[in-house]
Amino acid sequence: MVKIFIAEGDQLTRELFWDFFDGNSDYQISLFTSGAAVLDACPGKNPPCDLVITCIAMFPVNGLELIEKLKERFPRLPIILISGSIEKPEHHADLYLEEPINIEELPGVIQKLLKQKAATQAA
């Protein structure tokens, strides 16, 4: 089972993620309304999840700040940044997805990223 932390400032988008992943035994998701909440859920030396999906627009810790802080603590933690920004933001995420995303394709994207990270770590 893949443990995913999803940080999303928009309630409707959080509900979309929940509705999509709810009942799928391959994934265990935890939803967060801010980057600060994700950081609070990561107190130890090891990441408590296998993957983070984040947007940018959150307060008080936005998605870009969240990525920076997570990568400092957990450099190998895969992170997907989703944004509807007109310009692609400068970031340190492992994958950037432009909104609107096709949520039906997300499991394949997640599996591909996890396989790539595992192969990189094994090398």
Strands, helices and their partners?
Layout (H helix, E strand, L loop, with lengths): L1 E6 L3 H11 L5 E6 L2 H6 L10 E4 L8 H11 L5 E5 L11 E4 L7 H17 L1
Parallel strand pairs: 1-2, 1-3, 3-4, 4-5
Describe this structure in words.
This protein has helices at residues 11-21, 35-40, 63-73, 106-122; strands at residues 2-7, 27-32, 51-54, 79-83, 95-98. It has 123 residues and is α/β, with parallel strands linked by helices. The protein has a single domain (2-122), classed as 3-Layer(aba) Sandwich (Rossmann fold). The protein has a five-stranded parallel beta sheet with strand order 2-1-3-4-5, with helices on both faces. The radius of gyration is 13 Å and the shape is globular.
Q: How many angstroms separate the termini?
A: 24 Å
Would you identify the CATH architecture? 3-Layer(aba) Sandwich
**Chain-averaged pLDDT:** 93
Instruction: Count up the helices.
Output: 4
Largest beta-sheet details? 5 strands, parallel
| Cross-sheet strand order for the largest sheet | 2-1-3-4-5
Instruction: Indicate the low-confidence ranges by residue numbers.
Output: none
Query: How many distinct folded domains?
Result: 1
Q: What letter string, H or E per element, gives the SSE order?
A: EHEHEHEEH
Structural class: alpha/beta
> Mind telling me the CATH superfamily name?
Response regulator
Shape: globular
Radius of gyration using CA atoms only: 13 Å
The CATH topology assignment is Rossmann fold
Total number of beta strands: 5
Helix content: 25-40%
Strand content: 15-25%
User: Which class in CATH terms?
Assistant: Alpha Beta
